[in-house]
Model the fold of this input.
Amino acid sequence: MTDITAASRILADAFTTHTLIDPLPADIAPKNFEEAYAIQDATLATVGIAQAGWKLAVATRAAQEKIGADGPLVGPLLDGRILGDGATLTTKDIHFPNIEAEIAVVMDSTPAPDATSSDILDHIKSMHLAIEIADRRYHEKQDPIQTLADLNSTSHFILGAEIDGWRDLGFIGGKVTTKSDGEVLASNDDPDAWPEIFGGLEYLVGFLAKRGKSLKAGDVITTGACALPTITPHGKIEAIFEGLGTVTAEIKKV
Done:
């Protein structure tokens, strides 16, 4: 039987000490998404860092069907780890910097528990270009259930420029490219490979309502990778959204 407390203590210790671990032992590892969420919640409580928002992963229907999920996988964004455009990190801050060009939302108010994607528009303060720099606490990449338990690979987040006229853009994507020190990490010009941004927000509202939670003013939500997430050891990171702008960060080798 999955031991939520034991599993969460291992993951919380790895997070707070910034050390890498082997996969959770089979007798305490989560067997399904709900157990993974329970471990994630317990890990976050043990870590003791305030939550500043939410991240959505596996944000396309094709990816969700592949892993047997009914929507995006949800994790926390952490207080003190949402940084501005041009922020600098070091290789001491992060083990495996997984670079994801994303669109982020800042909430203005709380949607109703049954809000549709159209309803949610009226509760959004702003939308931004962003980079998620995801990370894991495991030595090796794990399956989606184990990853979800590990705070859904949350680490650092770069909140870039506000997108002017976001209500009129539709977000069915122009070309998106990520780079490290000028070298292309990933590129996507297929609108079907973009996350379902407003559908993802609708799912998140319902997901939270089932757990007695809700979005609130000031929450930052990042809606999923717009180009293939790619690990880079360090360098000047760019997420280039054709026609919208660029977000940058730097990971210095120390």
